[in-house]
């Protein structure tokens, strides 16, 4: 639904298969608000643009999450992936709405604390 006021946004996962009879999706959990088009996946984490100041990383194995604050004086544009335990994402200068990515930020997942939820 992606925030249009209908059903809750939810994250599902399933093992890869080429046989439709073997497809078995399981619900990881609800996703509170955000832009799921601006998202990435890697190393068991689904990361999406929650708002200009926050990326949210959902651990697919159990639905727990971490919030990554934007670097000082920057806002998030889009997560690009998770590699070697770090979230990689494009950033822009604040104020919001500049619309141009100026750099890439790397955020170690371990630096974000204990997953919540």
Which SSEs are present, and which pair or pack?
Elements: E1 10-13, E2 26-30, E3 35-42, E4 45-51, E5 54-59, E6 65-69, E7 74-83, E8 86-93, E9 103-108
Antiparallel strand pairs: 1-2, 3-4, 4-5, 5-6, 7-8, 8-9
Q: Portion of residues in helices?
A: under 10%
* Element-by-element helix/strand order: EEEEEEEEE
Distance between the termini: 21 Å
How many distinct beta strands? Answer: 9
- Strand neighbour order, sheet with most strands: 3-4-5-6
- Label the structural class: mainly beta
- Strand percentage lies at over 45%
The biggest sheet amounts to: 4 strands, antiparallel
Low-confidence stretches: none
Describe, in plain words, how this protein is organized in 3D.
This protein has 117 residues and is an all-beta fold. It is built from no helices and nine strands. It has strands spanning 10-13, 26-30, 35-42, 45-51, 54-59, 65-69, 74-83, 86-93, 103-108. The protein has a four-stranded antiparallel sheet, with no helix packed on it. The chain has a three-stranded antiparallel sheet with strand order 7-8-9, with no helix packed on it. It has a two-stranded antiparallel ribbon with strand order 1-2. A hairpin with a 2-residue loop joins strand 4 and strand 5 (54-59). It is elongated and about 50 Å long. It starts with 9 loop residues before the first strand and ends in a 9-residue tail after the last strand. 21% of the residues are buried.
């Amino acid at each position: 639904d992606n925030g249009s006021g209908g059903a809750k946004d939810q994250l599902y996962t399933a093992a890869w298969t080429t046989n439709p009879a073997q497809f078995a999706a399981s619900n990881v959990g609800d996703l509170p608000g955000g832009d799921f088009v601006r998202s990435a996946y890697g190393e068991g984490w689904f990361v999406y643009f929650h708002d200009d100041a926050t990326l949210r990383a959902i651990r697919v194995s159990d639905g727990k999450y971490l919030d990554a604050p934007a670097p000082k004086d920057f806002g998030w544009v889009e997560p690009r992936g998770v590699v070697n335990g770090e979230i990689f994402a494009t950033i822009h200068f604040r104020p919001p709405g500049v619309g141009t990515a100026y750099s890439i930020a790397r955020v170690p997942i371990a630096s974000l604390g204990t997953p919540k939820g």
